[in-house]
Amino acid sequence: MKIPLAIRLPLRHGLVTALAMFALGNAPAHGAGVGDIEITHPFATPSLPGATTGAAYFATLANTGSQPDKLVRAATPVAASVELHTMSVDAQGVMRMREVDGIALAPKASIRMRPGMGFHLMLVGLKQPLKEGATFPMSLQFERAGQIEVKVVVQTSRAQDAMADMHAH
Ligand SMILES: [Cu+2]
């Protein structure tokens, strides 16, 4: 699915996304790795009623090696496609997201992915609602490390954690 490079998000969506933070401590730790890539806690926020898109994140996405790598593709059975997106706040204070061709990881880099800011994996064409507590598989293709499958947990947000997280930056 082709989408415009920049999407002006409705304010409601922006707020929901900004407040969509989950409690890391509440879920059993899980993660996966391939080659020099280490992924901790893949999670998705529950989809909004009637929504055909969802978003997934990794608590951390790290490249422990000495060579650069790049996440270039993702796929899951629960959505028609997965797009790599980045989100930022423009000069007018409006949240915008755009598709990127990959998430580059410098040697020794570690990226935190959180609702409301930065990178996320956009699930386009959801085949089923993402309900809290459910899990689904997602396969990831890295330029250098190759392919890995992760288990994504659907987890409800906690607004106070989102605020704490935002203030931590
Ligand atoms: Cu997105």
What is shown here, in short?
By secondary structure, this protein is mostly beta strands. It is 11% helix and 47% strand.
Helices and strands in order, then pairings?
Elements: E1 7-8, H1 11-19, E2 31-34, E3 37-44, E4 53-63, E5 69-75, E6 79-89, E7 95-99, E8 103-105, E9 110-111, E10 118-126, E11 135-142, E12 146-154, H2 159-168
Parallel strand pairs: 3-12
Antiparallel strand pairs: 1-7, 2-3, 3-4, 4-9, 4-10, 5-8, 5-11, 6-7, 6-10, 11-12
The chain binds copper (II) ion (CU).
The site of copper (II) ion has 5 residues, from strand 10.
Task: Specify the number of helices.
Answer: 2
Number of strands: 12
Give me the CATH fold name.
Answer: Immunoglobulin-like
Largest β sheet strand count, sense and barrel closure: 12 strands, mixed
Overall pLDDT score: 82
